[in-house]
């Protein structure tokens, strides 16, 4: 029987940060993972360049049934703490946009940094190991991992959530939470493209690969970013962001002219160039293909002077308040994150420890805290992992 002070299940972003922090405190740490490699999601993140944090990270960038829960952990290990670690390892990075920090080279720079830190902190990582059974004992926990009995004082569940099952995502963390009497708040795919199967599908297909700057709104939330048409529907950063606020059956509203008052712009164009066709006017702000397809699908393209004020009003509304009811999302198969998870009301916001079971911790994506697109999800993994690492 091997005994550890701390066993962390899950060698992803949150688990590795927790192991580093606990190891640096002198705790004897073992990290278990069923995968053949640690940090697979880190490697595939940010298109292979890992958007490892966001300079403007604030609690407002996170979604949770309890929006206050994330504040303590985020404040005690900030984006600047992680940036200092990246700097310490001499990893080159840049801001892509909106405070999003990406590696200049490869996401593996971040994983190598974490594994080096784990090594320096004396934390041991054991891969290809499934945990079969967990029991609470008087001193802590007893588990069966890879047919070997292990015991520990503190047990940290850092097994992530349901997005990208082909990467080894499982509901294991939820099962452990339930086993120890925790509630799981209903889960759904977040940061995920929308599928369109209605009459709009041919337009999405025809424009597949084209993107346009927009504001997209749903359920009181608005994002200013590009949308991207795909063969299956719509995607792009603005859509991924709004998908986290969308529920089945909800309508989303897209403003295709976010910098303009569409009505006054069209009225100006009408008086400035009365003989120009609407399609020509629209090609000034959209690609030619987009302008043509929008006209074919929505309007009769005729010279501007022939539009009545009521007709122009309709054109303006279509362009600035385009309403779409997505048929669904692409689901966990392509979602970057899972919304919902272990109920934060049953965890300490300071330490991430269960309020029900002494010594049991939940960190990272398995918890009901989900970040926006832009490095916020890793921020949560680093901060929650650090909070637990300080306490275990
Ligand atoms: P994570 O999923 O990283 O790790 C969980 C670990 O637990 C895995 O190693 C898994 O193998 C292991 N595990 C699961 N079940 C187990 C079991 N039963 N037994 C043992 N081990 C088990 N975020 C961001 O901020 N910036 C970005 O650029 C991106 N990019 C991105 C791209 C793509 C394609 C995806 C899918 C996601 C992102 N994300 C992101 C989100 C980010 O990857 C995610 O929020 C974190 O990886 C969550 O970290 P965790 O450590 O909680 O789980």
Automatic annotation (TrEMBL):
Keyword list, A-Z: FAD, Flavoprotein
Lineage per the UniProt record: Bacteria, Pseudomonadati, Pseudomonadota, Gammaproteobacteria, Alteromonadales
RsdA/BaiN/AoA(So)-like insert domain boundaries: 188-337
UniProt feature coiled coil, ranges: none
Pfam families to which the protein is assigned, alphabetical: HI0933_like, HI0933_like_1st
PANTHER family the UniProt entry points to: OS12G0638800 PROTEIN
Stated name of the protein: NAD(P)/FAD-dependent oxidoreductase
The protein's required cofactors: FAD
Gene3D superfamilies named among the record's database cross-references: FAD/NAD(P)-binding domain (3.50.50.60), HI0933 insert domain-like (1.10.8.260), Translation factors (2.40.30.10)
Domain RsdA/BaiN/AoA(So)-like Rossmann fold-like as annotated: residue spans: 5-390
KW Flavoprotein (keyword) present: yes
